[in-house]
Amino acid sequence: MKFLDLLRLVFNNLSRRKARVALTAIGVVIGTSAVVILVSLAIGLQMNANEQLYGIGDLSLINVMPSYGGGGGGGMIYGGGGGGMTETGDTKLLTNNALQELRAIPNVVSVIPREYVSANVFVTYKKLQGYSNVYGVGTDDLANLGLKTQQGNSLLSRSSIVIGYMVAQNFMDPNQRPGQEPPPPPDLYDQQVQLVFAKYDDQGNEIRKNYSMRVVGVLAESGSEADYSIYLPLDLVKSVNEWASNTTINYNKVGYNEVLVRASDPDHTLEIRDQITAMGFQANTMLDFVQGINNFYSILQIVLGGVGAIALLVAAIGIANTMAMSILERTREIGLMKAVGATNRDVLSLFLGEAAGIGFIGGLGGAALGWLLGQILNVVAIIYLAQQAAAQGGVPPSVAVYTPIWLPVFVLAFSIFIGMLSGLYPALRAANMIPVLALKYE
Amino acid sequence: MNPNPSFIRIVGLQRRYEMGGTIVRALDGVDIDIAERTFTVVMGPSGSGKSSLLYLLGGLDRPTAGEIYVNGERLDQMDENALARFRRKTMGFIFQSFNLISSMTALENVAFPMQFSGTPAARRNERAKELLAQVGLADRAQHKPSELSGGQQQRVAVARALVNDPALVFADEPTGNLDTQSGVTIMQMLADLHKSGRTVLVVTHDPRMVRFATNKIFLLDGKAVSEAEYQAVALEPLQANFGG
User: Fold this and answer.
1) In this model, does residue A392 exceed pLDDT 80?
2) Which CATH architecture fits B38-49+89-242?
3) Residue B243 class from Cβ within 10 Å (0-12 exposed, 13-18 middle, 19+ buried)?
């Protein structure tokens, strides 16, 4: 039998039993629309989470730290780098040689050491005082770390610093009286600020060291720790740390606290991270976190899709029942088909086609209904979440329920498949009927 | 070309059924040869095995034992699909209860068997119209079975049986559900099919059919018997009751 003739016959046979086909298809509509809505919801949540996560930092950046072997308190960052720790069997320090090894990894665009200040540190500007993370970085341009400025430039020198987007927000008046209005955040760009470092001598007396620095740039908001950080040249931090610990630091012997490795593209981040780990260092990237979140949402999609699939399973039983009834009612017709020359395959194709047809009608309706309800739910949810964000703070989501184009297509194909699967047993029974028994069936 | 004297040949044909724990011998070792282009009438009382014989010869049932040859092909050894193709090419069937598909028009019912041979729709419709005209129903082509009389439905069934131009036409009690006039019309049509060179085999109770027959087969209790034996047994109850 030709495919077009089969389609015509399937269509005619389904039209003969409109009410029954419609009722059975409604079951499929409910199942498929449930799958579309629930999976769309999970995808929407994932997109929402990714939207937030992708703002939290540069996904091409890998934080590399030395490894101190099994007994060395792995991962602990020692203060100031002056501790005289040297490389042993399992210990892997971030010496200048190690930095050369890291630079040799394919798709690495920059390898920049970063040091913490081991002394107490705060910043003063006029009467105000601020506390921030202070880092020394082994580059004269923060652009090499992927950081962008919103004011000024990102160039560091012995007398210039670059501050994060939120640093000015952390300034306060130390003499402010209770109940007094706090001062507005200062505009620090192109201003002279005092960096005050403090240490204590053996008698517990505080010793301070001041550096007068000009703020040459303010970083653009990145959603990462850079927003709250002040960047200095590495040499300056090294000399402060030597002053604080009363030792001479030789990075070739003790290594750096931390090195920032940048990949040419976030696609290469994980492979570079794996290579660095294989070299014996500790390496972390935000992408690990993002991937963990993505894995969670993938599981959520499967779980929610599975909940919808239960409704589809019930619908499948409905299709099987409808087809079994139909075959019972049309037993003589099956006998006739065989008498006039239909092969078992013709009969099988016809009844499988009818079952697939019910799946198709239900799948089409379900995909359309699911998409429509998803759109409505999306609008309602965005309005609700935006109100929540306005009341509690935070960024309002741009999407809550998202139906990618593949989902209705997949659901339609899947419901056709489910239809055929449900119709398989009744169709096989029809195909294998003995013609004489079918013709004599009362 | 001379007609094949053994167009249909059955040897030692047996068909047994199990019904409620007892074995029913529908056919019990039947040997028959039917020549090509004959009009064969199979007669016998209810339960004699007439319909079983027709369904076995039509490849719609499988024998318990014995051999069935139609036009030189051994049917009892063919698989289901080969049998289906053989039926499609060689045979046409007419049933007592017409077996028309209620949702299809007369035209669609007649054209229906040609779908399975992959004939294009235009050719199918043309052939179906031609056959409906032959059976005098050209004006009822778009009517559904429920809109036709019993006689008209059976004429549609005759047209359907001929749509693939078969050499062999089987009819199972074709006049059983018809009024007298319609029955005669159908009988005349079957006679015309025979005259057009087809082999016709009719299973019937209707004694009027015998006058069209060129060959008669009598069955009693699953066995082929002579006309004299059949007459003796068939008329025995009448003679006993009415002394005829």
Assistant:
1) no
2) 3-Layer(aba) Sandwich (3.40)
3) exposed
